[in-house]
Amino acid sequence: MKVKCLRVRRAVAGKRRVFVFDTSGFITGLDSLLHEGEIYTTPEVAGELREAEVKKRCETALSLGRVKIESPEPAHLKAAREAAASTGDLLKLSKADLSILALTVMLKDRGFSPTLISEDYAVQNVAEHLSLPYASTVGRIRLEVKWTVYCPSCGRSFQSSSELRVCPVCGEKLKRKAWKRRRLKGET
Length: 188
Known about the structure:
Distance between the termini: 27 Å
Order of helices and strands: EHEHHEHHEHEEEE
Shape: globular
């Protein structure tokens, strides 16, 4: 299996290489039966698989032991949530997104060398912030971005760590904008 745009840190000697699949890993056709190394995902990601063919591929891989479904521990979910709040991506991430970030952190803490497979730029941004290796079949982020949340009507700004979705002052839906960008090493 070949993944284009694969810029992944090399596995540390002695650590077992594993992959953590986001929904996109299954949808884009990464064949878990031909993939090298163990593949992990979460119940939230498995629940997002709707297309019959994709679901069948995942179920077959599960029955053959090629894919493992595991829930991250609460401490790792908290770490993923805090990192997403720190970058300002928390509002853009689903439960499934946070679960795979947390699972990747948990596997790293267990001594594995995990690589997160995701097409989602917000997931990649948080993975970069957490120094987690990630890869994509379509494209990768070139900048790590910190976001700020603001109200387009009244102009007030709010902490990006807040889970506010509407302005508490005027009721307008909040938006976000980049306030800090850092070019990733190796990107031009």
